[in-house]
Amino acid sequence: MLDDLTTAVSSPTAWPAAYPRGYAVVDVETTGLARDDRIISAAVYRLDARGEVEDHWYTVVNPERDPGPVWIHGLTSDVLEGAPLFQDVAAEFASRLEGRVLVAHNAVFDWQMIAREYARARGEAPVKQRLCTIALSKELKLPLPNHKLESLAAHYGVVQQRAHHALDDARVLAEAFRPSLRAAAAGGVRLPLHECRPLTEWTDRPRIGQQGGYRPTSWRPSRKRPACPYPNPGRFEPGERLKQGMRVAFSGDTSTERDLLEDRATEAGLHVAGSLSRLTSLLVTNDPDSGTSKVLKARQYGTPVVDEAAFGQLLGNVEPAAEA
Fold first, then answer.
1. Spatial separation of the C-alpha atoms in residues 122 and 186, rounded to whole Å
2. DSSP string, 179-246
3. DSSP-derived secondary structure for 265-320
4. How far is the C-alpha of 105 from the C-alpha of 109, rounded, in Å?
5. Are 146 and 316 within 8 A, CB to CB?
6. Is the dihedral of CA 227, 230, 234, 236 positive or negative?
7. Who's near 304: CB < 8 A, 6+ residues apart?
8. pTM above 0.70, yes or no
9. Nearest to 132 by CA among 21, 267, 27, 261
10. What percent of the chain has pLDDT over 70?
11. Cα distance between residue 130 and residue 244, in whole Å
12. Is 148 helix (H, G, I), strand (E, B) or coil?
């Protein structure tokens, strides 16, 4: 069986013609998760059309601010003080991404961080599509206990050497992505590719109460999200899992950029709703006592409410839609 699979994916005629011609497996470490946070290190493994490694690249980046959770990424202010600014590495970074599909674990996050940095530098990242390895593992129905990178790596026997180091995380992901790509090709699986839309404007203005920071004037061109392919299974039940097809609405400020949360929900198979109705499965808000129209309607309809942190946990284990 294994020999048959190896032969199938190595055969030039068996490889899906619609698959991309190259990939850039990316990992970025950041000062945090919010819209004002910055990239402090980045790594790219370039792979060819069939997932073979071509080369790799790594850089640290001076974020021009506090480095954030040093206990996670290990990059102190002293280490980053002499590092290049993002605009100094933007051209080299772009050359690694040019003409390739960006591959990352939770790709929406990495893409948004990269897009924001290019917007600050008055440029655009040359990326048209991204592929999330979490979404791919779901398409392949891999028997993973959760959607952490370490679980995907363990499934393929890839050994992590330095977790939360961009270069090693990118290496681990590249080694795990290769067999996933081959399995997808052998099974004729359609890759879960998503369009990347660059930010168009950026204003260097501080948030209220901050000495410095960034606030976007326009995150990206307005767009219509693709229709959710799954039927609405009904309301979310506290203590249970989210199910693909559930309608989710957001209200109020979030620490993570709203587009990022909505894209993560969409990629998990949820229906992101712009308004709240009796059909809404769940409302996500950090201020359930506010008087916004969505919160008031949620009270009226008895719609379940969770905060951003709880929603993030729920996104990690969304139940697949029932087969028709």
1. 42
2. HHHHHHHHHTPPP-EEE-----EEE--PPTT-SS--EEEESS---PPPPPSS-------TTS--BTT-
3. HHHTT-EE-SS--TT--EEEES-TTS--HHHHHHHHHT--EE-HHHHHHHHTTPBP
4. 9
5. yes
6. negative
7. 235, 236, 237, 238, 281, 282, 283
8. no
9. 267
10. 86
11. 21
12. coil
Q: Which residue has the tokens 């409302």?
A: 283
Residue recorded with tokens 């013609």? 17
pLDDT digit string, tens, across residues 126-178? 999 999 998 899 899 999 988 889 999 999 999 999 989 999 999 999 999 99
Q: Are 286 and 307 in contact (CB under 8 A)?
A: yes
User: How many CB atoms within 10 Å of residue 323?
Assistant: 4
CA distances from 243 to 18, 216, 265 (A): 30, 32, 11
Q: What pLDDT shows up at residue 212?
A: 37
pLDDT band for position 215 (cuts 50, 70, 90)? very low
Distance from C-alpha of 284 to C-alpha of 177, rounded to nearest angstrom: 32
Q: 3-class DSSP state for residue 91?
A: helix
Lookup result for tokens 């891999």: 142
Give 2's pLDDT tier (boundaries 50, 70, 90): very low
